[in-house]
Design a protein that fits this description.
The chain has about 475 residues and is α/β, with parallel strands linked by helices. The protein folds into three domains: about 140 residues, 3-Layer(aba) Sandwich (Rossmann fold); about 140 residues, Succinyl-CoA synthetase domains (Rossmann fold, 3-Layer(aba) Sandwich); about 160 residues, 3-Layer(aba) Sandwich (Rossmann fold), CATH 3.40.50.261. About 40% of the residues lie in helices and about 20% in strands. Helix 4 links the parallel strand 6 and strand 7. The structure holds coenzyme A. Coenzyme A binds next to helix 2.
Length: about 475
């Protein structure tokens, strides 16, 4: 197991030096210092710049060697060729951790690889753990520390995001913010010269603020270390592995100097260690949100409620085509449903409560379906048809999730209607209830919760299950 304590000075620093803090608002070293200050960091900050006596009202020092206090974390934003010298000074100063923002290393070819190795060796000899190079830094919305360039923070939440791409990392934060998905820690790993995915899985596994680990990965250098960390991780991991094709793989090698490797090998390795694989950002967050806020499904049998037949049929198709079942409901359930349904509707699964349903019918049928012993998970669908009551249905889903928590059966919503109902759907997002705009996404989220149920069962048999998830 990686030593997670080594990473504490990086992620919970008592003091930070920004090396290359700049006077110019157009430079990255300016933005990093600004972001740390804006978030109200309460530790000590030391801007390092030999050219000016102060920046943003803070006294600068020409080098870390001139700082009298101890330094936990150095954030380095000087051109690549100066990084070995700066790292040597950090080692002399006994700085504990470093983030090398600078690019111009392994991703640029042989000369860059040598420079990266030189910096790594200096850091290792000095006992410094190192994130990067070629990284954005990290953003921590739980402890309010923005140790990255690019302005803006994620919403605080329970999903940790680890990304090998800095720019995509920012895009993912803004996507998550728009979807009302909260994040616990956002870490851009860059070229992963030292701290890699395995270290971060171990670190986040013991982080009390993180329930789910979401990752964007281009390449993994030490497969065994990665798989060992994933295997011992008790929290669910969702990962995008990019560079799946010849074109993608070539692009990854110049982006972060990664060797993408055979996709089939990654696929089978992820399966072995129960990493849920996603193929794009939306899918990754679809799974992460469900895993963070709904209990795992104990079986693969799905109940479906819709206010329009077509939506229910499509969900049934998707469920059956990805290894879920749409079971017949018990006779007792059908008998209980009938008084709530119009005479023309059959009491079956998927259940069409018809377009004129109001709060009570939608809520009562959902509640009865959820209590059926043949049903392990429920998908509640709303199509924004003329006489539908999306706002009432949202109220019904929120009530059901609150009332039925003790059943430990996941409830997922599928809301089809575009921008017209977006404000209504937002009420579900704010409550952290997984809601998806398509049958495919809703069914896949349930499949993901079913896989998580099986993973936990296996861990349980091995005697190392985490506390069941699903606090909502
Ligand atoms: N110690 C401390 N400060 C130093 C220094 C040293 N040894 N050498 C230079 N500086 C100061 C400079 O004087 C300058 O401050 P000033 O603007 O007030 O004069 C500041 O550090 C920055 O140095 P500069 O030479 O102007 O570099 P830059 O800001 O143009 O570029 C990087 C530096 C790191 C941003 C750039 O090289 C780089 O790598 N950019 C890409 C980063 C990136 O995309 N990373 C990956 C993201 S996913």
């Amino acid at each position: 197991m990686g030593n997670v304590d080594d990473l504490k000075p990086i992620f919970s620093p008592r003091s930070i030096a920004v090396i290359g803090a700049s006077r110019s608002p157009h430079k990255i070293g300016y933005e990093i210092l600004q972001n740390i200050l804006v978030q109200g960091y309460t530790g000590k900050i030391f801007p390092i710049n030999p050219e000016t006596p102060n920046i943003m009202g803070l006294k600068t020092q020409p080098s870390v060697l001139a700082v009298k206090d101890d330094i936990d974390l150095a954030i380095i934003a000087v051109p690549a060729e100066f990084v070995p010298k700066v790292m040597t000074e950090c080692a002399k100063k006994k700085v504990k951790g470093a983030i090398v923002i600078s690019s111009g290393f392994g991703e640029t070819g042989e000369r860059g690889r040598q420079l990266e190795d030189e910096v790594l060796q200096i850091a290792r000899k000095g006992g410094i753990r190192l994130i990067g190079p070629n990284t954005l830094g990290y953003k921590d919305p739980i402890d309010n520390l923005d140790a990255a360039f690019v302005f803006g923070m994620p919403r605080p939440g329970e999903i940790a995001l680890v990304s090998q791409s800095g720019a995509l990392c920012i895009g993912m934060i803004y996507y998550a913010n728009g979807e009302h998905i909260g994040l616990s820690r956002v870490i851009s790993v860059g070229n992963k010269a030292d701290v890699d995915d395995a270290d971060l899985i171990d670190y986040l596994n013991q982080d009390p603020s993180t329930k789910v680990i979401a990752m964007y990965v281009e390449g993994i250098k030490d497969g065994k270390r990665f798989l060992d960390a994933a295997r011992r991780c008790t929290k669910p991991i969702v990962a995008i592995k990019a560079g799946r094709t010849a074109a993608g793989s070539a692009a990854a090698s110049t982006h972060t100097g990664s060797l993408s490797g055979s996709d089939a090998v990654y696929d089978s390795a992820f399966r072995q260690v129960h990493i849920q694989r996603a193929y794009d950002v939306i899918e990754m967050f679809d799974y992460a949100r469900a895993l963070a806020y709904q209990p795992p499904a104990q079986g693969n049998r799905v109940g479906i409620i819709s206010n329009g037949g077509g939506a229910g049929i499509m969900i049934a198709d998707w469920c059956e085509s990805i290894g879920l079942k749409v079971p017949n409901i018990a006779k007792k359930t059908a008998d209980a449903l009938r008084p709530h349904l119009p005479a023309i509707t059959s009491a079956r699964n998927p259940l069409d409560v018809t377009g004129d349903a109001r709060f009570h019918r939608y809520h009562a049928t959902g509640s009865i379906m959820l209590s059926d012993p043949n049903v392990d998970a429920l998908i509640m669908t709303c199509v924004h048809a003329g006489i539908a009551r999306p706002r009432e249905y949202v109220g019904a889903v929120i009530k059901l999730v609150e009332e039925k928590r003790n059943l430990r059966k996941p409830i997922v919503a599928c809301w089809v209607g575009g921008p017209d109902i977006d404000e209504v759907v937002q009420e579900l997002r704010v409550k952290n209830i997984p809601v998806y705009a398509s049958a495919m996404r809703a069914a896949k989220a349930v499949r993901c919760l079913y896989d998580e149920g099986r993973r936990l069962e296996l861990l349980g048999r091995q005697g190392r299950a985490r506390q069941p998830n699903g606090s909502q």
